[in-house]
């Protein structure tokens, strides 16, 4: 059991955070300190039967501050149906983009408002509001002195007609606010990842039902480069190794795939794990590069099987070798950070084995 608990001996549990339906872990540093933001989907409603899409989604996202080797509650943002927080900076200004999938306690409203906040006088002040539909994730990226925000959103629900824009889209900073830049095809967006490699810019987009894709910057817009004709897309991660560009793709319904870019296309070279993978966290440790494969559920939303283990892999000889599992509970995200030369890992857990939202998220010391 010790090996299962510790990810092959790499993890030591340090703290449990009392979260409810936690969907992401966003670690960021400002001149005020180091912080952890945790968007939360919902809280349990007394007497309501277990249902992963039920609960009271009119909830907040706690923001913890790092103090004396642990996280302490610091502040909170209103974030109904919380899915994501994304911290970024532009020209010394500090921003936090928030995305939630829904509001209400049932029936729910998927027409939401994704908000970008700016840090002013030690407070998060709303800067801009974006009408959204089932918003899942913000990703900020920059190149050539241009700054973009990508919003993954959308869902397919019988009989539901969105009032707000439903397509995933890109926005560009004009110096004071973000303006619409590009709309993507796709009905159920989950995630984006961006990378620059050998003078080219690539943007990967994960979609649950419309097929995921990689786009390449052509000087004016992001144009389709490669598509993946499969349902279940959840997350992408890029990295460089041995002079090559590599890409990981987590698919909730199948497995996680490692790709290598051959100059024209991303070619599959390895499959990792099975179904249930939702997020990916790369760690550059003292002993090499590691991958945390975050596992959420299998089955269906109406009959989910909560995954109780996630996995750690180590990079070696152009492939990932499995180090070992560690105990999680419907895990949704992982983030890594370093303080005083010690590396840490925080994992957001969304569901208990009994499909309840009230599940602790966990802080670990990472010794790889």
UniProtKB/TrEMBL annotation:
InterPro entries: EAR, EPTP, Quino_amine_DH_bsu. It comes from the Bacteria. Keywords: Repeat, Signal. Pfam families: EPTP. GO terms for biological process: signal transduction. SUPFAM superfamilies: YVTN repeat-like/Quinoprotein amine dehydrogenase. PANTHER family: THROMBOSPONDIN-TYPE LAMININ G DOMAIN AND EAR REPEAT-CONTAINING (PTHR15261), THROMBOSPONDIN-TYPE LAMININ G DOMAIN AND EAR REPEAT-CONTAINING PROTEIN (PTHR15261:SF4). This is EPTP domain-containing protein.
């Amino acid at each position: 059991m010790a090996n299962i608990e510790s990810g092959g001996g790499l993890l030591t549990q340090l703290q449990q955070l009392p979260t409810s339906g936690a969907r992401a872990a966003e670690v960021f540093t400002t001149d005020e300190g180091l912080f952890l933001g945790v968007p939360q989907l919902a809280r349990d409603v007394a007497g309501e039967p277990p249902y992963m899409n039920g609960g009271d989604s009119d909830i907040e996202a706690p923001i913890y501050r790092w103090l004396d080797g642990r996280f302490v509650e610091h502040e909170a943002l209103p974030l109904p149906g919380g899915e994501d927080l994304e911290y970024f900076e532009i020209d010394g200004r500090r921003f936090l983009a928030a995305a939630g999938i829904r509001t209400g306690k049932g029936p729910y409203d998927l027409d939401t408002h994704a908000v970008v906040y700016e840090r002013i006088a030690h407070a998060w002040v709303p800067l801009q509001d974006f009408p959204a539909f089932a918003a899942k994730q913000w990703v900020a990226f920059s190149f050539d002195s241009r700054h973009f925000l990508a919003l993954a959103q959308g869902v397919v629900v019988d009989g539901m007609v969105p009032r707000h824009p439903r397509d995933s889209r890109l926005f560009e900073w004009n110096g004071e606010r973000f303006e619409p830049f590009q709309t993507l095809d796709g009905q159920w967006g989950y995630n984006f990842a961006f990378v620059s490699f050998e003078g080219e810019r690539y943007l990967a987009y994960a979609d649950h039902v419309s097929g995921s894709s990689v786009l390449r910057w052509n000087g004016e817009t992001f144009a389709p480069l490669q598509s993946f004709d499969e349902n279940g897309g959840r997350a992408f991660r890029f990295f460089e190794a041995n002079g090559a560009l590599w890409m990981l793709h987590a698919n909730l319904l199948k497995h996680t795939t490692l790709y290598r870019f051959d100059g024209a296309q991303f070619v599959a070279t390895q499959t990792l794990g099975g179904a249930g993978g939702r997020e990916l966290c790369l760690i550059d440790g003292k002993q090499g590069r590691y991958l945390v494969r975050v596992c959420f559920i299998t089955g269906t939303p109406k009959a989910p099987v909560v995954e109780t283990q996630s996995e750690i892999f180590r990079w070696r000889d152009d492939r990932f070798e499995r180090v070992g599992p560690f105990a999680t509970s419907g895990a949704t995200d992982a983030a890594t950070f370093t303080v005083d030369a010690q590396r840490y890992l925080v994992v957001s857990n969304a569901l208990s084995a009994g499909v309840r939202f009230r599940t602790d998220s966990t802080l670990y010391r990472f010794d790889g």
